[in-house]
Design brief:
Elements: H1 3-28, E1 36-37, E2 42-44, E3 50-52, E4 60-66, H2 73-88, E5 94-100, H3 108-117, E6 125-128, H4 132-143, E7 157-161, E8 166-172, H5 178-191
Parallel strand pairs: 4-5, 5-6
Antiparallel strand pairs: 1-8, 2-3, 4-7, 7-8
Length: 193
């Protein structure tokens, strides 16, 4: 083998090794920004059990604000949330959290019936209700989305929260296409140490 041929082969090998290294590095260094932190909260779920922020520690979770009698955005949002629920239904490290902005009506019994319409595994998709003032505080001091003065005018966004209770992204709950990005980002957070 001539010196020129060896030089070409070594060059090709070097390019392949360098490319492999950078491809591997780019996959492992994708980091989602930290947007905020969710404060402590405590609500009642569709089983009548207390769910608080500590119950979600160590889990990646997606949250939204809805109410069961909504006929505009909420059915679309809940349908899109169900796409996420189905994708991660069997993953014990993922939770879905839907918080009612109409707690006077959305009792645990009402939320239980609502969850059944979506065949929700309510051990992993929590439908929560609680005092209106507590919901307002959580919207204002935690999620920072929607109208915290008149919470019935809730946000149409989903919030992605990491294992430490930090918001890592917002997604349109009205856009089915955005669910692809949300799924991808959930997987990124699941891979974080």
């Amino acid at each position: 083998m001539s010196q020129k041929t060896r030089f070409i082969i070594y060059g090709i090998v070097a390019v392949i090794l360098t490319a492999t290294y950078f491809i591997k590095e780019s996959k492992t260094t994708i980091r989602l920004p930290v947007i905020g932190k969710i404060p402590a909260f405590s609500f009642i779920d569709s089983h009548g059990d207390e769910i608080n922020r500590r119950n979600l520690d160590g889990k990646v979770w997606v949250a939204d604000f809805i109410f069961t009698t909504c006929t505009m955005a909420c059915p679309v949002m809940t349908g899109n949330m169900n796409i996420i629920h189905k994708e991660f239904r069997n993953n014990n490290n993922v939770r879905i959290v839907s918080i009612s902005v109409y707690p006077e009506y959305d009792t645990p019994e009402v939320l239980s019936e609502f969850a059944s319409r979506y065949n929700a595994n309510t051990d992993r998709w929590h439908f929560l209700t609680g005092p209106e003032e507590d919901v307002k505080k959580l919207i204002k001091n935690g999620f920072k989305m929607g109208d915290y003065e008149d919470i019935i005018f809730h946000s149409e966004r989903f919030a992605l929260v990491d294992k430490k209770g930090q918001i890592r992204g917002y997604y349109s709950g009205m856009q089915t296409d955005d669910m692809k990005n949300l799924k991808k980002d959930i997987n990124i957070l699941l891979a974080e140490k």
